[in-house]
Amino acid sequence: METIYQLLHVTFANVPAWTVQVAAFLIPIAFIFGVYPAIFALTTLVERKALGRIQNRYGPNRVGIFGILQPLADGLKILLKEDIVPRVADKFTHFLAPVLIVVPGLLVYLVVPVAPGMVAVDLKIGVLFALAVGTMSVIALFMAGWASRNKFSLLGAVRAVAQVVSYEVPTVMAGVAVIMAAGTLSTLTIVERQGGGILNISNWYVFRPWGLVGFVLFVIGGLAESARCPFDLPEAESELIGGYHTEYSGFKFALFQMGEYLAGMAMAGVTVTLFLGGYMGPGSGPGLVGSLIAMLWFFSKLAGMIMLNIWIRGTWPRLRVDQLMGFAWKVLLPLALVNIVAVGFWHFLTPRPLAWVVTTGWLVIWFLVLTKCNASAILEKREYRYV
Amino acid sequence: MNYPGKGLVEGLAVTARNFVGSYFYKDRLTTVQYPEERIQTPENSRTFPFLVFDESPDKPRCTACKICEVECPPKCIYIVMDRDDKGKPLQRPKAFDIDISVCMQCQICVEVCPFESIKMDNDYEKSKYGRFNDLVQRLPDLLKSNDYYRQIKPVEAAEVDAKLKAEAEAKAAKKAAAVAAAAAKAAATPPAGSAT
């Protein structure tokens, strides 16, 4: 915001200062409200098409060329649907939940930098803000489940709360590794620390042993927090009908979908910022052209993360509840803690090759130990009759 | 080689192969986009019966013998024989209705027909807007040429044609033989009273 403010201040020197102030507020807001919901709309289409291709189908291709107008048609359809509120529901909370669920998803984008200096608010506690606000959606989920007065809604909400709270811990711990390495909580500074090196690529944190582990942990945690496959137990259709949004219809249901997708994309954005070098890439830098290339890099990486989510959704089956909790507390959390120690090794050991060897060895040994310790939870291979 | 997470990685490889392959290999996509694309129906597929005519629609093979009407298990066939002014049967149907909402496509009418007149169609686009009269196929709807029959079921139609031809030839031969026999008999039989 400061960058935009300064830019506007220099460009429009003769207008009153307060207009510049207001404009500097409004531009990032308009950007976040315009770009990310547009990406959400596109994602729904791309997801359906990609899932179709994964299953050797065409996917939607009837509305407009290549089905490009499908999101519009879906939106129109869902607007025209009847909005049903159960008679015994807690009306106010029932109404408030879908409104609230969109908010955290959008708030996270405030601290996700898209180009050098281009972040809505350069908070000094950016990562903490993103992780804390991202989890806020669990309140809206529980409001929805509780207010609906439906056993399926409540079960789904309880599952959602248990899952999000459990997975928040390893996710934050994986983020701590990055914070330790970068020495700051500001997202903009974290991205700047990942610049330089070969083609602006080699310094991305994902190309460090601890960064790779952190990246995997963060992606898994992000999937679990946004309740996406394979962690979509809160809305497991076969068991819970629709989970916490069983009793929602029409536009409120659409808001739930939107909130979930926005939260998932926000987690993807934070992953890109923390591990994949944010807007860093060949050609990105200060200046207009550099900024545009940087923006292109950021959104390409975001699209890549979204595609990874879709790929995972099209492939892996859903976890069982007991597997879910065991996985979070017995595998991910110890690995995240071990990873923090690995960052310590990385920071203090010189020369660099020694640090590489020690951190990699440390992480591999602990990974094998954890796999061995959890061997009883790993199912043995089963032969099915009709393979 | 076995390693933790092997199944997950292999699964991802399978879906990635499907995703990329579906853009390069047309045979991976089994979807038939129906109104634009159609599958060639197999020759032995059948939907509802139709009536075959040889030269023109007013000369159907059907003689209105009503065997199919009697044999039809759900009784969906209704036939009225055509008669001339004096009430003499003309051996052709005046009305021939098949209610395709009742027809169960059993092909029994085809099996029992002695004149190779009623055959099974393979036209499956029979849906209509009305529930009652629209679903009753009248005589003009049912009459289709032998050429059409040859086109939809080439093998079966060839067999039927050969059989009909053989029958016609046998009939002609028999008739000729009868004529010849009558002539021979006439020739062999001496005029009355000539021998005695």
Description:
The complex is a heterodimer of chains A (387) and B (196). Chain A is mainly alpha-helical and 387 residues long. Chain A folds into 2 domains: 1-80, no CATH class; 81-330, no CATH class. Chain A has 14 helices and no strands. Chain A has helices at 2-11, 17-54, 70-79, 91-108, 126-135, 137-147, 151-182, 187-193, 209-225, 237-240, 250-275, 288-315, 321-348, 352-373. Chain A starts with a helix and ends in a 14-residue tail after the last helix. In chain B, the strands form 2 sheets. Chain B has a 3-stranded mixed β-sheet with strand order 4-1-6. In chain B, α5 (146-152) crosses α6. Chain B has helices at 6-24, 67-71, 108-112, 139-142, 146-152, 154-188; strands at 49-53, 77-83, 89-99, 118-120, 136-137, 143-145. Chain B has a domain at 49-146: Alpha-Beta Plaits (2-Layer Sandwich). Chain B is an alpha+beta fold and 196 residues long. Helix content of chain B is 38%, strand content 16%. Chain B is built from 6 helices and 6 strands. In chain B, β2 (77-83) and β3 form a beta hairpin. The chains are: A mainly alpha (387), B alpha+beta (196). Chain A binds chain B through residues 50, 53-58, 311-312, 314-316, 367, 371, 378, and chain B through 4, 8, 11-12, 14-16, 18-19, 21-23, 28-31, 33.
Low-confidence stretches of chain A: none
The number of helical runs of chain A is 14
Query: Based on the structure given, which CATH architecture of one domain in chain B is correct?
Result: 2-Layer Sandwich
Most extensive interface, chain pair and sizes: A-B, 15 and 17 residues
Strand content of chain B: 15-25%
Structural class of chain B: alpha+beta
Order of strands, widest sheet of chain B: 4-1-6
> Mean pLDDT score of chain A, rounded?
86
End-to-end separation of chain B in angstroms reads: 115 Å
